Amino acid sequence: MAEYIPLGRRFAIIDRAFKQHLNKKADQLGLTSVQLRVLGELSRMEAFGVSEVNQRDLEQAEQVTHPTMTEMIKRLEKKGFVTCTTSTIDRRYKKISCTERSRNLYLELAQADEAITKTLCAGLSAEEQAELIRFTDCMLDNIGYHL
Fold first, then answer.
1. Is the C or the N end of the chain the one with fewer CB within 10 Å?
2. Strand pairing partners for 86?
3. If pLDDT is split at 50, 70 and 90, which confidence band does 108 have?
4. Which residues, other chains included, contact 86 with Cβ-Cβ below 8 Å and sequence gap of 6+?
5. Contact of 72 with 40, CB cutoff 8 Å
6. Structural contact between residues 92 and 74, judged by C-beta atoms closer than 8 angstroms
């Protein structure tokens, strides 16, 4: 008889699997998987025309606290992946920008995500995969995370 695994634990296991795969890419760049995700989001926002990205934008996108993001940005700036300048829109904020080193990183992450998803969803039909996306979209909406 198969052991019952609560849904929360299932999500945690899947999250760890994603992180393990992403850590390989992150290690190549000298980053953590969380830093890699933040850079991916920043590069995606810039590529899609967001004029200025500030720390609050990244905190909301990655669902992390202000102190956590502050330290992450400091480390990424020290490693040469981002630059921080005073915002021209609101001088109280810092504009966070990708350097050439991290520009368009979101494209590589999208490919990595697709490969990981393909591995994790092996055995699911295209319709089942579409349903999975629909279910998780609903769950994200339920917790107030709007795509």
1. N
2. 94
3. confident
4. 93, 94, 95
5. no
6. no
> In this predicted model, what pLDDT tens digit does every residue of 12-30 receive, in sequence order?
999 998 888 888 888 988 9
Q: Measured at the alpha carbon of residue 17, what is the angle toward residues 69 and 78, in degrees to the nearest 5? A: 30
Label residue 119 exposed, middle or buried (CB < 10 Å: 0-12, 13-18, 19+).
Answer: exposed
Specify the residue for token string 């319709």.
127
34 CB-near residues (< 8 Å, 6+ apart): 62, 64, 72
In this model, does residue 61 exceed pLDDT 80?
Answer: yes
DSSP secondary structure, 5-34, as one string: --HHHHHHHHHHHHHHHHHHHHHHHT--HH
Q: Where are the beta strands (DSSP E) in 25-136?
A: 82-86, 94-98
Q: Rounded to an integer, what distance in angstroms lies between the CA atom of residue 92 and that of residue 38?
A: 21
As given in the structure block, the two tokens for residue 16 are 């760890």
Q: Is 123 left (phi over 0), alpha (psi -120 to 50) or beta?
A: left
Residue ranges and CATH numbers for the domains of the chain are 21-112 (1.10.10.10)
77 burial class (0-12, 13-18, 19+ CB within 10 angstroms)? middle
Which residues pair with residue 35 across a beta bridge?
none
